[in-house]
Amino acid sequence: MSPFEYKCGMLFGSFDPLHAGHVRLICRAIELCEEIVVIVDDDEIIRKVKHREPLFPLNERRWDLYAIKGVEYVEVESIETPKRIWVKMYKPDILIKGDDWKGKAWDGADLGVPVLYLPYTQGITSTMFHKARK
Question: Nearest 5°: phi and psi at 96?
């Protein structure tokens, strides 16, 4: 019997910048899942959806995510490769989101995979880094 609750867990995000809150969320996911797949937004999605320039280019964000021990795959979401493509390819048992996403515009439920909300780290958001940059 596997010591993990789930075989494959998937997380989505821009991770721009990758901060302690993200790392803690990913580490909790690693404890629950035998395999972790992280889908990171490309620079174009950040520009179109978040209406801002990325603080760090995609390749740096991917490198940082791979540096987290236990992250097996880091894929890129783009206009050409939306979330549903990666869900179809990896067939995750669970999508993992911070509980700050409950009730927001996109919470992952529309992908046909259960969503597990884990507590996010209070007081740390990517937005605070972007505001500090201005």
Answer: -120, 125
- Within 10 Å of residue 48's Cβ, how many Cβ atoms? 11
pLDDT in tens, 102-126: 877 666 778 899 999 999 876 655 5
Q: Using an 8 Å Cβ cutoff, are 16 and 61 in contact?
A: yes
CA proximity to 101, closest of 90, 111, 109: 109
Please report, for the chain, the start and end positions of each structural domain, with discontinuous segments joined by +.
8-133
Q: Which two tokens stand for residue 102?
A: 């409950």
pTM recorded for the entire structure: 0.87
Assign domain 8-133 one CATH number from 3.40.50.1110, 3.40.190.10, 3.30.450.20, 3.40.50.620.
3.40.50.620
> Dihedral angle at the C-alpha atoms of 25, 31, 32, 33, nearest 10 degrees?
100
